[in-house]
Amino acid sequence: MAQNRFPDEDDDFPPPLKDPDDIARAKAAYNSTFELRRRALRYAYVVLGLLIVLVIYLAMR
Q: For residues 1 and 57, what is the distance between their CA atoms, to the nearest angstrom?
């Protein structure tokens, strides 16, 4: 019996999805997470842009 080279490796992967309904649910969950991340990134860029404008305004004052 070969020893595992990486004892902390997780070999308990979930079984692959085969049911079309489960696959559709997993895709929908992934897409909603993706949209949430995209929206958060958009707001972060807006805040960063406003801070840059504020710094430039205060520097020129």
A: 69
Distance of CA 34 to the CA centre of its chain: 6
pLDDT tens for 2-36 read 566 666 666 677 778 899 999 999 999 999 899 99
- Beta carbons within 10 angstroms of residue 29's beta carbon: 10
pLDDT tens track for 31-43: 989 999 999 999 9
State how far the Cα of 36 lies from the Cα of 26, in Å rounded to an integer: 15
CA atoms within 13 A on the CB side of 51: 6
